[in-house]
Amino acid sequence: MGILNITPDSFSDGGRWYDIPHAIEKAYRLYEEGADLIDIGGESSRPGASPVPWEEERRRVIPVIEEIAGKAGIPVSIDTIKYEIAQEALESGAVIINDISGLQADPRLADLAASAGCGLVIMHMRGTPQTMQSLTAYGSVIEEIRSFFTRQVGMAKGAGVREAQMVLDPGIGFGKTADQNLRILNRLDELRLSSYPLLLGISRKSVLGKVTGKDVQDRLYATAAAVAAGILRGANILRVHDVREMKDVILTAEAIRREAVSWEE
Description:
Radius of gyration: 17 Å
Mean pLDDT: 93
Low-confidence stretches: none
Oligomer: single chain
Helix content: 40-55%
């Protein structure tokens, strides 16, 4: 999953792809580098980020989705917590709703996913980007996330979302300390519920900066190590900035996990 943040304030690449022509160019480049799908977001979720009015979020993301999904047919997920944005994104060609609130901000996203038959990513987080890093006290972060997944999957099923539509994301960096993020990564396999795929978003995250002492733009190798660890612990979808480089990491780690060079039938 290639990341395309059309924002002025995302933690890693805020402002780089903020105008529509550059965002479209970047989307095509991510796909050419090997992304299986492009995750497009118009509202930063970094700690402390301010909410964006839906009209502005729409202005940022819909023209890009119309171009790369609607015209070019590239698989797109819309990274949003807003019903109106998700609905128009699906109408414009997106095939997945990536909800960082895990159906907490607007439970109607489950109804939308059910009626559209699209994919739905349910991510664990506490609070909002403004409050989440003050909400890091857990009895057991692993058990909390598992309980959250069970609860929110049940909610989605109640709305009519099928099991095959859902993906679960433990939310690295969202209401967790650095040590808790490392625990999640190391015990990722314990978070799996039944056959639901696991999505891991570790690319350039602050925990990697704490481990290495490197600034956000210098975390390529740390990201590679974390991505490889994630694959070996059972991650199925990797959300990354550096698609070309991480594609090789993913292919190699997956071959090791499967003990085979190729797993195609």
